[in-house]
Specification:
- It is a single chain.
- This protein is 15% helix and 30% strand.
- It has 192 residues and is α/β, with parallel strands linked by helices.
- It has 2 domains: 85 residues, 3-Layer(aba) Sandwich (Rossmann fold), CATH 3.40.50.20; 100 residues, Hexapeptide repeat proteins (UDP N-Acetylglucosamine Acyltransferase, domain 1).
- Strand 1, helix 1 and strand 2 form a beta-alpha-beta unit.
- The longest helix is centred in the first third of the chain and has 13 residues.
- The radius of gyration is 16 Å and the shape is globular.
- The mean pLDDT is 97.
Length: 192
């Protein structure tokens, strides 16, 4: 089984671990986090290095995934995604076996589609995104790079969510709207 490193060891990392374990394509080799956390564990996986060691670690491992969450700003996820790519890692797409992604949809590298999420026909999800638990991305919608569509959010048909945006839990978009770059949509909002 191919080995993968997870970049960031917080709460979102725990959810990503669960998806990777259930997907069964990768074996988690360890977690990358702050140097003061070296030797600690996240759900049994050891913190084996820090961001400054990514270039060295890329000689030992081919695959990595940014496992830091995103709420107000995508800046940390973007920084870690760029560092990981520059170090030479391959950032795979991770899809829970409990999610549905249409054969007619596209999901970019470094994106994770969590349990019970749905990505319908014609939808395009960019790189380094989080499509969180029970989120719905409807037909022909575009989720640009570095976005987080939070738990149970609904992106209706033909919507464009611009780069770096956060759509809060339970938020619902009207069809055919555009959500501007780096937007933060509060939980439970209706986007018209």
């Amino acid at each position: 089984m191919k080995k993968i490193l997870l970049i960031g060891g917080g709460g979102h990392c725990r959810s990503v671990i669960d998806v990777i374990e259930q997907e069964g394509r990768f074996q988690i080799a360890g977690v990358i986090d702050r140097s003061e956390l070296l030797g600690t564990h996240v759900l049994g996986y050891e913190v084996i290095g820090s961001d400054s060691e990514l270039a060295k670690l890329s000689k030992l491992y081919r695959y990595a995934l940014v496992a830091v969450g995103q709420i107000r700003s995508a800046s940390l996820r973007i920084k870690l995604f760029e560092l990981t790519k520059a170090a030479g890692f391959i950032l795979p797409t991770i899809i829970s076996p409990r999610a549905y992604v249409s054969d007619h949809a596209t999901v970019g590298s470094g994106t994770v589609v969590m349990h019970d999420a749905l990505v319908n026909a014609g939808a395009v999800v960019g790189h380094n995104c989080i499509i969180n638990t029970k989120a719905l991305i409807e037909h022909e919608s575009v989720i640009e790079d570095h976005c987080h569509i939070a738990t149970a959010a609904v992106i209706n048909g033909n919507v464009r969510v611009a780069e770096g945006s956060f759509i809060g839990s339970g938020a619902v978009s009207k069809e055919s709207v555009t959500i501007k770059e780096h937007s933060v949509i509060k939980a439970g909002s209706v986007v018209k």
